Every structure is written in structure tokens, then in C-alpha cells.
Amino acid sequence: MSRQAPKDSHSTPTASRAVTARLVRNILEGVYGAGSRLPTERELAEQFNVSRHVVREALKRLEALGLVRIVQGSGVYAQDVLLTGGLELFEYLLFGERNDVNQRILDEFLAFWALFVPDVLRLAARHRTREQVQDLREALRERAAALEDLPCLTQVHLRMLRTVAQAAHNTVYQLIFNNAGRVMARLRAAVPLARFSPIITQEELAHLVAAIEQQDEELAALLAQRLTERARASVASFVQFLLQSGSELLTPAHEG
Amino acid sequence: MSRQAPKDSHSTPTASRAVTARLVRNILEGVYGAGSRLPTERELAEQFNVSRHVVREALKRLEALGLVRIVQGSGVYAQDVLLTGGLELFEYLLFGERNDVNQRILDEFLAFWALFVPDVLRLAARHRTREQVQDLREALRERAAALEDLPCLTQVHLRMLRTVAQAAHNTVYQLIFNNAGRVMARLRAAVPLARFSPIITQEELAHLVAAIEQQDEELAALLAQRLTERARASVASFVQFLLQSGSELLTPAHEG
DNA sequence: AACGGTATATTGGTACAACCATCGCGCGGC
DNA sequence: GCCGCGCGATGGTTGTACCAATATACCGTT
Questions:
Q1: Which residues pair with B250 in a beta bridge?
Q2: Which residues in chain A have Cβ-Cβ distances shorter than 8 Å to B37?
């Protein structure tokens, strides 16, 4: 029988993945200038003390990420991330090597989020099915039960948003949500945000769900805008607090 | 001397890339069900008549794209694209094997575009520098010169949008634009859209640039919304025409 | 009969070695 | 001065062997 269900086992740390991570950081931090040629595969292999195959597999991953261009007979060339990179790279840009957070990029992400979520809500209100409204109602009840358990609450929030993204019936937004949601999850995991609890009330969310049910696009978008703006302000003040307390979680914007 | 400037030479078609493409399509078309295990590396190697290393490199690329999860000792497992995939996969979803276009996904993309562009314009109006306004003015002049040359005009449009994305000073939107812009370029290359010419007038764009210069967020967003909605309607009617003429460029939404 | 641990087969990970295909640059001929 | 050939550098492919993690089957214990 064909094996099924690979569980959620963590990825085994392999040499290949380690080299990949090193190279990604090197590119993102400009060790290899945009457009310039990387060392040859053989040189990298020697440098990292691994076989050439390991380096090659790592480079293939970078190629798939759009970080390098590989051309036979010539070499491997670093790409300009901001000019050719895709959204999948954002996670790498926001989080540093030791899971620290780049402050400027964080601001930009929150600005994006504040525009993105209302758009999704608009589409969700337009295209939602009755089933999805039911799903949201159920998620709302789950939230009520989990109101005291912060980590769990975050999970519930993200699942609600996923449902909304599905209700939007738009592949693009769903994919963007997959990217952004991963970032969100990592953010809340990385930051001890115990002081975030009472930002959003159960009534507000119920109001929002009702707007979706009645397909009131404008109202749904407006409510979402208010909530995201408030969350944004809250995170900003929290960041302020972190900076004053000298936390190492945040790295100032170091530009090139 | 270290070699520089790798030119724009097209990627050499290699066995590794071919296998990658095959596997990507297989996953996206559900040949391997979401969550199920793919054939072993050795089996795939035999199946495609290549060495195991080639298969491995292809699989690394899929892994980087988020299409599969690889776990040593167990196997390679297909992921559910809509649940875990990132925006970089959209291009693969929209375009089929022979550069045909999935109609439903196209609709969704246009809906996204109509919401995305105004958001970017809003941020651009908020954060633009004087230099970037100058860049836009210059691009506008270039556009005037290229008004008759349709392919060239498309290029100019995308470059203007890139400038706007940069003016937004937001990494997220810039990365999303990189994804979406690639799709846009491919769309216009794939579709013979000679009848698209007179959609947007020079005056309208000038108006938009002025709004950016004066940092009138609402006006910029509003104008952008009008333009994108018009473009959307135009494309829709064009698709209608294609369907009636029995073009093979479009594939009806074939769902699973 | 139910449970747990060990042996074994399966499968991905790494290594070394050799050779092919393509590209770029320089040398030499025209 | 320009063109073309060829050589060296570099990525692409193959083969084999072995290592490491995982999954399964088997067997003994309880």
C-alpha cells in the first residue's frame, strides 16, 4: 500500500538545507552584489566542505526562489531581489538569521496588511457561500471558547482569515494569504505579545461576519479597515516598548 | 577579472528543468493527490530516463516552490497548493502547458488587479519622492512617443507601474508587483490584443501622476480604480470574442 | 491477546569520480 | 581591423557506493 499522511514531523536538518540557508542570507545581505557572479560550484563546495551535489541542489532551490540565474558554461549570477524577487522572499527579508525582525520591513508589512485585509473582506462579502458563513460562525464560537488562551486565539484568528480568503473565491488572494499568513504566524510566535489580548471584541467580529452574510461589501471592508488599523497601532506601540527596553528582537533598518 | 553582466540569454533547456516542469504540472493537475506520496526518486529517475541526481535537483526546486515536502527515509509528499502555496505559483496556475490561459483564473487575476493597483497608487501618493514623480513624468513622455507601437507600449506601462510600486516604498507591494507584473507581461505576450490600444488616454495618466505629485491618496486610488475597471471590462469582452471565435488560447475552468 | 522492542527493508542524503555541453575569451589567420 | 577557430572554464549529467532517517514486520514478553 502507498504510504499516506506524512505527519507534521519537522524537516530533518541536512547539509543541503544548511547551505541553502547560508546562500540565501548571503544574497539577501548583498555579500554577492546584485548581478555579479557567485563563486563556482566547485569553489562553494570546497568553501562549505560539502560535495558539489549539495551545492548544486542548494543552487537549484535559490533558482526556484528567483534569487539567482544559472547559466551553463558561464556561472551563477545573483539577482536583484527587489526587481525580480517574488512574494515568497518576503519572509526571508523580514526575519533575520536569529529570528530577529527588521523594523522597517515590519512597518511596511503592517501597512500592506491594513490594505490587504479589507480588500479580501470585500471580495469575501461579494462571493461567499452560505456554507462559508456557517464556517465563520463556528470559528467565532471557537474563538469565544479560546478567548483566554492567547496562542490558541492566534490560531483561531488565522483560521478565520483563511476561511475568509477561501470565501473570496480568488486564487490570487488565497495564495497571498498563504504567504502573509505564514509571516503573521511567525511574527506572533517570535514576539511575546501577551499585551495584545483585548484588541478585538467578539461583537465586532460578529458584526463583520454579519456584513459578509448580507453581502455588504462596503461595510465589511470598512470594518476590516478599522480593525487592522487598530491592530497596526497596537503593534506599533508594542514595538516602541520593545525599543525602549532594548530588546534584541528588532533590528533597525540597515540599508545598502 | 570576474565575469559580469550575464546578458539576457534565454535559459538553456536542460533535462533537470524539463523534469521540473513535468513534475510541477503533475502536481498542479492533481496527478499526485494532495498529501499523497510521489514515486521514489529512483522510480522517477527510471520513469523519466534520467539519473537520480537530476530528479533530486528537480525535487529541490519543487520544495523551494512549496509544492512538495521532502522527508528523509519516508518520501516526497505533494502539498495542497491552495492551502500552502505562495504567490509565485500563480503563474503556473494561470498558464497551462502550451501557454494557454485558464479562463476562471484569469477572471480572478483581473479582480485582484482591480483592487491591487488602487492600493499601490494610494501608497505611492503617500510616500512618493520628487524624483519618482520626475521618473513618472519622463515615462509619460516615453509613452507619448510609443503610442503607436503596441508591444513597446506594454513595456512602458509595466515600467510605469514598477516606478509606482517603488514609489509606494513598500517591499511587500514591490514583491507582489514582481509576481503580478511577470504574469501581466506574459498575458499580453500570449494574447494578440491589437484591439486594446485606445483604452487609456495620455490625459488620464497625466491626471493620475498629478494626483501622486500632490499626494492626494483618495484621488489617485479613485482614478486607478476607474482605469483598472475599464481595462478589466475590455479584457472580458476580448475573452468573449475569443470564445466565440473558438480560440484555443483559453481553457474553460476544469475543476477537480 | 496486547504491547513493546529489535531487525530489516525502504527511501532520501552525501560523497567521489568521470565525462558532456555550453559559454567566453584570446589567439591566429585573412 | 575583423572574423573564426580553439582552448579553458563552468555548469549539466551519469554512475556507483555508502550513510542516515524512517517505516514496517517480526518476535518475544507480559
A1: B101
A2: 2-4, 6
- 3 state SS for A192-251: CCHHHHHHCCHHHHHHHHHHHHCCCHHHHHHHHHHHHHHHHHHHHHHHHHHHHCCCCCEE
Note whether residue B10 is domain-resident: no
CATH of the domain at B163: 1.20.120.530
Residues A39 and A105 in one domain: no
Looking at residue A256, its pLDDT comes to 31
Contact A86 B179 (CB under 8 A): yes
Q: Is the CB of B206 under 7 A from strand D?
A: no
Residue A67: domain span: 15-85
Comparing CA positions, the residue from B235, B207, B234 lying closest to residue B219 is: B207
pTM greater than 0.85: yes
Distance from CA of A192 to the nearest CA of B (A): 24
pLDDT tens string A127-181: 999 999 999 999 999 888 887 776 677 788 889 999 999 999 999 999 999 999 9
Q: What pLDDT, in 10s, does the model give residues B46-80?
A: 999 999 999 999 999 999 999 999 999 999 999 99
The nucleotide closest to A39 (CA, C1' atoms) = D10
pLDDT of A189 reads: 77
Shortest Cα–Cα distance, B96 to chain A (Å): 15
